[in-house]
Design brief:
Elements (H helix, E strand, L loop, with lengths): L9 E2 L4 E3 L11 E3 L8 E2 L3 H11 L3 E2 L2 H7 L10 E4 L3 E9 L2 H6 L1 H11 L9 H8 L2 E8 L5 E6 L2 H10 L4 H15 L6 E6 L1 H5 L6 E7 L17
Parallel strand pairs: 5-6
Antiparallel strand pairs: 1-4, 2-3, 6-10, 7-8, 8-9, 10-11
Length: 233
Amino acid sequence: MLDTRIQKYGWYILDIEPRDRNKDNRKESYYCISPPEECIEHIGPDNNWKARKEICLKNVFYNFKNLETASDTQRKDFISLATFKPKELVDFIAEPKDCQKEESKKEEILNNLRMQGDLINQDIPEYWEMAQSIPFTFYYKFKDDSGEIYKLMIEDWEVMMLYRNCIKHGKEKALHDIKKKYLEDFRKRDIYFFLGTRRKAHIRRWKNPFSIIGVFYPPIEIQPEFDFTTPGK
């Protein structure tokens, strides 16, 4: 059962083990042996998210082709997790799911979770059940620092919970509210993506194995203006 008390930007002590590297050779890929205990520290938004930025923005990609190169499994030090800074948010897209196609994928999902050690009681974990219940797949279209446009699927827990919270007002209103937050409101923030690869796509060396697994949205810092023409100012 998912513990909804877990705080975002909280520090937790976890018992973890690496995946079976014969089946998943991504070095960042681990699974939890037991649920996390209480939060030992929460990182707040003080000073324009200064402490959060120090943790989350240590190594940021700005060019998507450079990220693709860094994730190439032929490299000894290839990566499967990254923080990416889009130059511009172009669009937020909600595409209706093909229900029959989604149902046919259920066994594939189960097999994939068994392989990764994520299966609980031979059933799909709550996160996957919740994701399956959302009748849309969400995407971002964005530009990187070269001006090229990319489209990535959003698998962020927050966007799915937002949909579930808004659906009581109707599907059209829910989609309107989600797009307002993820496009209009976030255009006014200093946006970064947390990206992760999909195991099957990465192992098979698909050109773009990444999905957006989180959005980091600190406020834009306004630099002070200086008058260089007047001495002493």
